[in-house]
Every structure is written in structure tokens, then in C-alpha cells.
Description:
The complex is a heterodimer.
Chain A: H1 2-17, H2 27-31, E1 46-53, H3 60-67, H4 76-92, E2 96-105, E3 115-124, E4 129-136, E5 141-149, E6 158-166, E7 171-180, E8 189-201, E9 206-222, E10 225-240, H5 247-250, E11 254-268, E12 279-293, E13 296-311, E14 314-329, E15 356-357, E16 360-361, E17 366-376, E18 391-403, H6 409-416, E19 420-431, E20 434-437, E21 449-454, E22 459-467
Parallel strand pairs in A: 1-3
Antiparallel strand pairs in A: 2-3, 4-5, 5-6, 6-7, 7-8, 8-9, 9-10, 10-11, 11-12, 12-13, 13-14, 14-17, 15-16, 17-18, 18-19, 19-20, 19-22, 21-22
Chain B: H1 6-15, E1 25-28, H2 37-52, E2 58-61, H3 65-68, E3 76-79, E4 82-85, H4 87-96, H5 107-134, H6 136-147, H7 155-173, H8 181-199, H9 211-225, H10 232-238, H11 241-254
Parallel strand pairs in B: 1-2
Antiparallel strand pairs in B: 1-3, 3-4
Amino acid sequence: MGTVHAKAQTENVNSVGGGLFDFEEPETLEEAIPKPTIKLNGVRARVDRVHVDGLSRTKDDIVRSAVDELFHATDFEDVILKAHKVRRSLDSLGCFKDIGVFIDVSNGPGATPEGLEVTFQVRELTRIVGGINTTVSENEGNLVLGVRLPNVAGRGERVSAEYSVGHRSSSNFSVAATKPFTRSALQPVLTTSVYQQNHEYPWSGYRLLDRGVLLDIAFRTSPATKHNLQWEGMVRDTSVLSKTTSFKVRESSGPVLKSVIRHIVTVDHRDESIFPTRGTWVQFSSELAGLGGGVANIKTELQAEANKEIVPGFVVQLTGAAGVLHDVFGTELPEFFYLGGPATLRGFQQRGAGPHCDGLATGGTMYWASGLHLYTPLPFQPGKGGLGELFRSHLFLNGGCLAHPEENSQAIIEALSAVRVSCGAGVALRERGRCACAGSATGCLSALLVEVQKGPNLIHIIVLMKQM
Amino acid sequence: MPEMSLKDSIITSLSAQEPWPDNVKLFQPYEVEQILLPDNASCLAVQAFLKMCNLPFDVEMRWNAEFMSPSGRVPFIKCGAFVVSELEPIVQFAANKGVSLCSKLSTEERAEMRAYMSLITNVLVNAELYISWVDQETFNTVTRVRNSSVYPWPLGWIQTRSKRNSVIKRLKALHWYDKTLDQVLADVEQCCNSLSQRLGDRDYFFGTPTELDALVFGHVFTIITTRLPCRKLAETVRQHDSLVALAKRIDEKYFKRA
């Protein structure tokens, strides 16, 4: 029974880790122990020595502190569990390509009777990793060149740079330097990046050119709770897309300096981030702009998601989001909330809901959105257990409201009750760690609308009915 | 995604022929703390032109007028759904609505007027840009302060730098950047000479006010009334009494600020 027990424990540890690191478990290690009659937690053991093979660039001190825990093991089961944990924390340093664990009875001088030797065989990442790929985003095709220098200074620091050129001759770049502090409490990771980004919003008729600096400290207060503390300073250049753009949009052109402090807390109890079958996910972000710069506002946003499997394979997902923006001064169109599109209010055109001026979305200061989704296996389950697992049928009903009300409670309630609803069906496709959607579906009220939508991680072709 | 349909563009061109509405606004930078010499000259020229045409408008000052303008230059007017910037397109736009100051002029006179107008844009505008952005003293004490006055630090510094670079790029392309201040003033002198010769002792260049008068007024009035550490430009222009008199005449007739 020992093996089984040990494995069950390991899995438990794994799930608490909550998909922290996508780590392939070498099942053979634990299962290689031959006789199932030995109770592993009854075998007294102590780790005499730990070897780490294959280190060249990585500094000893971070490895030493990562493996230190192993020496506190008192029985064999403990050794295995701790070895697994250490392996995981070594992996999280981001210095190694792969890590093997080998446990042997210790011998030689200084060996104790119950002594063990644990050997980690590691392979370090190459000094430089590069890549070229192409992406197609909402309205542009991009060529992306990326370079990454993992483990630059031997303590898990990395530098990455990305440069992308779009076919509309817009160029974006970002350079980021990351340093993990694995030995201090909460294990914060500090990231500094410098970027230039072009965004075009044809639905609102403006174009943004952001140049800025972002400082980010990420840490976890529990395995499922992640915090990000950020400061961002940027120069945002807004310009209109055409001569006929609405004057309201034109009024917000020009460069502004913005300085923002942001706190994002994410609690993720889902079993998977794509097609989860159970668990909840909550993200709460608060932003304070105006410590320096020409824009001052307070922005809060809450997003949540709950999943439940009602019948095997049938997952109901309930989502909700809400946000409030309070303008102090200088808040222009790009700061506002927008609603509509697959990421916010599926079934609507991008930024299709909420205040418009001359056919252009001008955004609002308050919104809420909620949705009910049902993910099921494909009808008749073609390719079950194989290719078919990448697909789900998707039924949705969502509604929401975006408003730009005056600051008085009556008007706010009135404005936020003008709900816009859409429902429809489609097929969702999982695509290498991301999720894309494609498909077709059911009927409609007056006209048949076929829309192709692409969100950050979803492509959706849907036929839907709308209540306008 | 908003699309400009054929229907829209037809409506646009039809409504362009409608009469001048009452709610026309002229957008320009802040006069007191922000506007620079060349911008002020062109804003004044457009205002003078609209006043000569008797077209009603309101002046609205915005810190980002330059960025709101479709051509990136001030001033611009908003007339219904239309946004038109700079003097010549505005003159065209008014002509489309049936308002023109040079309808009585012969073809030769019109050509002459155009020639003088382009002389001004080629000489006076460049000289103003040169004084504002290349002359170190003026740049440091006036241009830099005024241009960055509407931005928080360090954006003001960045914006002034990038604007200076683009002005210098323009002047380099026109071979004005290599000139010394004296050469620039000599060019201005020559330009003023030919203008005052053409004007002679008439009240206006072509008898009645035209856009050329508006343009000359804009530049001459701005140059002689703006206080700059470099007084040489103002002194050069001031020597031409007929031009100064023209500027004063137009100022009194159209800009009697009660």
C-alpha cells in the first residue's frame, strides 16, 4: 500500500500547487519502488548528501538554499516528497531545462546507517534563446522577433526583448528584465520593462502610441493567491484615425503623461485555466493614477468566474465583471471602460455596447457584465479521447451594461439598468495551451448574424440572436 | 468598425455647399501662456480672413489644438462635421460655400496674390521658425518655456525636444538651418521690400481686403507686437511703414476689441 499512499500524497501536493508550474511528473520514479508491502513512512531515513550535477553558470547559493529542505527529512516517504518539492523549486528558478532525481543509499566515509544520497541531474538552459513568429491580431498581422537570455547572472535573472512589426508599419517593442528573489519571504519576482506599443481602435476611431516603463513585483501569499504591485509611467500619444472621426474623439488627441500605481490580486482555485471543470477564479484590480502626470483617476475592476461540472463532460460556467472609474482630472477616452466583444460581452461587436458618438464607441465610467456558459463535448462526440478533446460545444447567454452617468445615485442606477443581452452557440477549440473558438450555431430573431470574433485567446464564429 | 460609405461621402460633399453655420469654432493654443510666434501669426491671419469675410466664429483655446488639427498645424476650424486647418484650405472651404474675397480679381491678380502668399510662407514663416527654435536665446527664454507650459514634467521637455528636432529637420531641408541670423534678416528685409513695393500707398494690396492682406496682417502684427529677446526681426519689419500701417488699419477695422 506504501506506493499508492506515497503517490496519492504527491498528487495532493501537486493540486495544492495549483498548476503553478507545468511540470511533467516522472511517474517511474515513485512506481519503480518494487514491493508494495513496505510502509514508506515507517522507514527511517536521513539525507547525508545532496549532489547537484550539471551546474555551470548557476550560482551555488540559490541551489543550496533550494535543496536545504531535504536535510530535514526523517523517513523515506519524507525524502521522496521533499525531493519532489525541491525539484519543483529548482525548476521555478528558471535556470534548468530538465531535472532528474536519483536517490541512493549513501556509502563511503561519513555515511550513517539510514543515510541516503540524493542526486539532482540538471541541464542548464542555453545562454540565449531566440524566436521568430507571426501573429494575427484584431486588425493587423505582425512579425514578432524575440530574444531571451535566461539565467543571465546565475540566479534566475532573465532578460527578454521582443520586437514586432505590423503590416501597417506600426512597430512595438519591449525589453524586460526579471529577477526572482527566491530566498526572501513570499518569494517576490521583480520585473522591469520598457516598452513602446501601438494600438489601433477602429471601433473608437483613435490610435494610441504608448511609451513607458513598468515596474512589477509579483508575489504569492498562498498557493492560489497571486499579487502584483505595479508602477507604470508612460507617455500616451493619442491620435485620430481619419479626417472624419467624430469631434468628441478628436478632442482627446495629444500626448499625456500618466503615472499609475496598480494592485492586482488574483485568486485561482480552478483545476485548469482553459476548459476548467471546477473551481473559482477572482481577479480584483485597483488603480490610482495621478502621482505626477496629467491624468488623475481611480479605477477599480472586479472579474470572477465559477465553474461546475453538472454531468460528466458538461460544465456550467458563471462569469461576472464590474468596474468603476472615478475621474479627478484629465481622464480621456483611452482611460474609459469599453464593453462588447468576446472578452467582455460575447455576441456584440468589439466595444459595441455603451455610449457611442457618430458610430464610435466613446466608453463609460461604470460597467457590469455577467454571463452563463455551458461547455459540453461535441455532439455525438467525434474523436472522443483524442482530437475531440480539444473541442467543446459552447452555449452562452450574457448581458451587461456600460454607462457614463452623472455623479448622482439615481442616474447611476438608471444608467446601469439599460441591459444589453446576447445569446448564441459556438464551438470552442483548445490550441496548445491557449483556447480558440470556431463554430456555428442556432437561430435568431429577425436576422441571421454571423460574426467572427477573436479575443486574446478565443476565436469565435457564431450565429446569434441579439436583443438590441 | 466604422466605415466611410459612398452615401456618407456624398452627404459630406453636399453639405459642404450649405451656407456658413453660426456655431463655427476656431481652435488655437492658449494665447497668453502657450502660443508661439509662427502659430500666433497663422492664427491671427485666419481670424482676420474670417472677419474680412464677415463669417461669424468663436475662438476656442485648447492646449492640444495642434494635435487635434487634422494637419498637425494650428489653427483649424470646426464647421459642422468638417474640420479644416490652416489658411489656404480654409479660404478654399469658404469659397465652396460661396464666400470669397478675391472674386473681383482678374486671373493675373489672383496668380500674383498666390505668389505673394507663398513668398510669405517661404520667408516669413521660416524666419519666425528660425527665431523661435534655432536662435538660442529666444529658444531658451521664450520658446522652451511656452511650449512646455501645458505639459507636466518631464513630458514638456520631451515634447519640446521632439518639436525642435522636427522644426530643425524642416529648416535643414529648406537650407535655412545653415543660415546665420543676419542672412535670415536679409531675407526678411527683401521679402518686406517687395511686399511694401507692391502695396505702395494703397489701403490694401488689391484695393479691397483679400486673404493676402489677412496673411500679411497676421505675420506683421505678430512680429511687431511680440516681445522677444531678439529684437532684430521686429526692427527689420518695423522699418517698412506701409506694412505696419496696413497691420494697424486691419487691426483697427476688424479687431476693435471693445
